[in-house]
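Co-fold these.
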Amino acid sequence: MEAGLQSPAFKQLWETAQSLGNPEIQKWKESGKKVAGYYCSAMPEELIAAAGMLPFRIRGTGSQGTDLADAFFSTINCTFSRHSFNQALRGEFDFLDAFVMLNSCDNVRRIYDHWIRQFETPFTHFLSLPKKAEQAQVEFFRQELALLKGHLEEHLGREISPDDIREAIRLNNETRRLLRQLYELRKSDAPPITGADTLAIVVASTAMPKARFNELLTEVLDELHSAEGITDYRARLMLVGGIVDDPGYVNVIEDQGGLVVTDSICFGSRNFWVDVDESDADPLMALASYYVRDRPSCPRTFGLHEKRADYIRDMIDQFHIDGIIFQRLTFCDVWGFEQFPLTNDLKAWDFPYLMMDREYMLSAVGQLRTRVQAFLETLGGR
Amino acid sequence: MDAKTEKSLERTREDIAVYTSIIEMMEMAPGEMNHLYMPTMKNMIRQSNRIIECIETGEPFAASSFSNPTEIFTAMDLAWYFPFKQAFAGGVPNPHMMDDLEGLDSMAVSSDICTLVRLALYYVDKGLLPKPTVYLGIVEPCDGIVGVHEAMRTHPDWRDVPTWAPDTIYWGDERAFEYMGNEFKDMVRFLTEHTGKQFDLDRLREVVEESNKQYLLWQEHAELKRAVPCPHSYLMGMQCFYQTNFEGGGKPEVTRWFNDLVADAEKRIEENKPEVENQKIRILWFDIPPVWFEELFGWMEQEWGAIIVMDMVSFCPYELIDTTSEDTIFKGLARRVMMDPPMVRQARGYADNFLNDLTRIVRDYKIDCVIWPGHIGHKDGAASVSLMRERCRQLDVPFLHIGMDQFDKRYMSPDEVKTRISQFFTAMGLG
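Predicted complex below.
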């Protein structure tokens, strides 16, 4: 299954997703500007951008093993935390001038404890992200953002003005709008882009300046509007779960005939389905509201399962989904428990699903193929 | 009572029967420690009977996670139970454990998550927990706890139970305590609304003043455990936690128990007559105990003269609460909830929380070695092991990381755990 995107713009986005460093980061650094690494889509990267830094979402892309990280982690820690920290230990993130972390999950949050001991990154900061999503939590997180802002100002020796934050919000919202346009195209019977290519684009959005990404994605969208759609698929699938940043994983699914047309994953629609409120007089409050309460949640937040289920239900309807593939990293407790209520929901909706555990780096491809094939058989269809 | 409700009380009634028979046996064969063991068991029976009574009379009751402030429940005269307790039957070997674990295997929850929290969901799924009027969760110390509360809350059988949980943030400073104190004020509003139980600040003050006495005595007991030999076994520390954090928190009879406990420890130190004789190795068991703690710790004592001097359940700041005003009380309760309970204290926040406790305990309690059991549910701890090992190296104290499941013997068998411990003691020249 191939969409056959040929443009240089797409090629650049694809290559960005396949590596950690990229020419855009290099250009950014050469112009004397700084790069801040972070984990997790719940990081308010607008605030980092408002400080004049390039927010770079850390991955383990290209990792060949966890030999270095294994001295710091245990075998019951997920392979994402181990591979990505291994890449850090190998010096793959030496271009970072800052490292900002939040308590995303038990595996990843401990990377901060090791990072500050192993590296001399000039600026490090930790944010406490609430695990509920009510007004008290929004207000608390606004305090946390104010502390981060103050820390950044102290480090950089300059003020971060409300207008700086508003501009970063505007730019990120533009990215969100463009990505939603991309997903909109996938609603058609003949989507012009595969799930794997889409994932590459979303990953690239976290690894280069937003302005440049928006230019490139605009070019890709132009190309897609006139592209021939994909029709040789057996079923329309939705990918649900935690972190997937390797288009190769989606490729394996799509090679079996299941076209991934939407998702609820950490590098996916949850990051851009809703905009940050640009009309809020207090841009920090707008960010706090968005990251704590307004954006589609992941299961680290208590009390929102019904909303998560509604989100999936809505996606199923909007994208005409035939089946759901739920994937989780082994040892991921956050998504491990979500399986239970979600399974109950899917059974109640009488909706086909496949639950799979996986490792961060693409492996057990034969098994993955077999399970996807069997799942597609059960869907019947085209 | 309908069949479903009766089934939900089966295990509760079994617990009562087991503890009642143990107490009867103890009364028939009086031992010198009975006066310290029996009150806790009677307390457990009382708590279980209260739930049955509530169901029979229609009185509202709660299911709550262990680290919500029991003082508020006591002050509101709200009966409650800890839904995870069934997994360890309150301390005696759970006769259903293997069946429960096999049943759990067939549920749509991954087996690499904490078995204890998965078991709680299993009990809800199988109708083995009394359906409460309200359900109070927590969101720390781990991802699993958030997940299980969410799964229990949305379970078809419990979906109509009003649920609340405090947001326990990452920090342990004044701002965090103030925030959390407000969360507990919200909890009182929630409980009042959904149970009809009344809240009286003066009554809460009275309860907190009583629990302050208990914490003061607990601290005294913890300090007495620094003595060599250690006056009491690991069971007393666990009981201290149980007495303050479960049904008895803030009740005068529990204060009397603490007085007896401290008096007994003092007497044993004076007479050089420890509860466990022939102590050779002083251990920091840096976690909660496994569900089969009697078998393992008893073996360690008998085979190696190895005594658990301190563990996560027994160690906390034992801080007292300022009862001057509503704000100081709630802030104090918040501090207690965030800084005292095992795992919530260490695992929430930076890894330094582990390291600081480890350092202090090793130094204060003349620890010969540290054992980190490496429970499969403790992912953050697993990611901190290298830091703990390094700290132990700096402190010149041997460190063992086992890698077991505290609640599932099938993951690593008791024999294998014992072999690892024996090899460790031998290699380190201990005992």
